[in-house]
Amino acid sequence: MLQLHDVIKTYSGKSEVTALDGINLSIAAGEMVAIMGPSGSGKSTLLNLLGGLDVPTSGRVLVAGKDLAGESEKERSLFRRTSVSYIFQAYHLMPTLKVSQNVALPLHLAGVPANEINRRVAEVLREVGLEAREKHLPDELSGGERQRVAIARALVTGAALLLADEPTGNLDTARGEEILNLLRAIHRERGTTIVMVTHDHHAASACERLIKLRDGRVEGDSLRGGGDR
Question: pTM of the predicted model, to two decimals?
Fold first, then answer.
């Protein structure tokens, strides 16, 4: 599903900064993986490369066999629209749109017919337990409910790859646990490949595999239970 070969990512400014320094990594379809590391270790940069939001300075990033490093911005934009979904710490919901409208937004952008949009939105709202909140605005919801809306919006496209950036970071312990349980259920029932960046060891423990980054390199790669890959 995901393969990185000798990936280097540098940023130029007053001085050159190397965010990723020779990453070699493979993530199979259907895995649920946590990525951890201190600030500046390259976690967010890696997530951006996997989602086609950025390209490496050198090396190859293959997602489902497609080399994103060789794609144009237009091609990567189409890839993001059809093949990858995101969940963010800050939810990124449109405040003036109701729950169902927020969830439907990526389908409207993709030109999906209205009757199909309505069917898919109803299905995913049931899946995340928010069918009774479809007509509410985001500021009428709790933090946990807002994250469920964001998850529903990510699921509605049917993308095989779900990238989550600190999905429990704005939530209290109980609401965070609910979101982790939901992500586990999505992984189990849909077979979605999930890659989650987190600072939270408990959130990471929800995943089958833990990849640790430090100074732009892979410091550790282990399966849950302690076995190294």
Answer: 0.91
